[in-house]
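[job 4471] stage=fold_predict status=RUNNING
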Amino acid sequence: MHFLLSALSIVLIDLLLAGDNALVIALAVRALPPRERRVSIAGGAAGAVVLRVALTTVAASLLTIPYLQIAGGIFILWIAVKVLTDACEPPEGEPAARRLWQAIWYIVVADITMSTDNILAIAGASKGDVWLILFGLAVSIPFVVMSSNLLAKLMDRFPVLIYLGAAVLGRVGGEMILTDALVTRRWNPTDMLRYATEAALALALVAYGITRRNYRMTT
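[job 4471] inference complete, writing structure tokens
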């Protein structure tokens, strides 16, 4: 019974905290053809699972490492800018193989940098039991993969969702930067400052995407 309750807790944690990850994956692969999209999602998810299991053993120290979340937040913001830029460019720009491996790299790095809270929560619920960790991931990863595929297809049909997704990544990137161990220790930003920064980054990304699209349409 204890094992089942712990396993249920881990599954719920994974599902509740996996929304942002699914969005990043969808944005990273949306420019790929359907087959390469599926391969990159599967490859990126597999790499992220291996790293998550390894990092869960040292989860308690992850959130205390200075600059870790700053780097992760900047990387997430860069992905948002890259996606908005690619959305305004002709699809035949880059070789498919390069874009495939690039998408897998984005997925792995983004998943790990965004999942420190997820990893910490799972470590607490599992009490270090590797089988519980694996069980939780085995249940949640298919959900993330299906959600990513669905989001990518919706973005193909409704391009405005790309801007909404970029805005969400702006919020996530700002939150990661302002909750970094170094930032909280030196400046201890208030909730009001954090919310204002997240909103400003979200709006800035949407403005960049619209400006880039309008410029592309006039040239």
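[job 4471] summary: DSSP finds eleven helices and no strands in the chain.
[job 4471] exit 0
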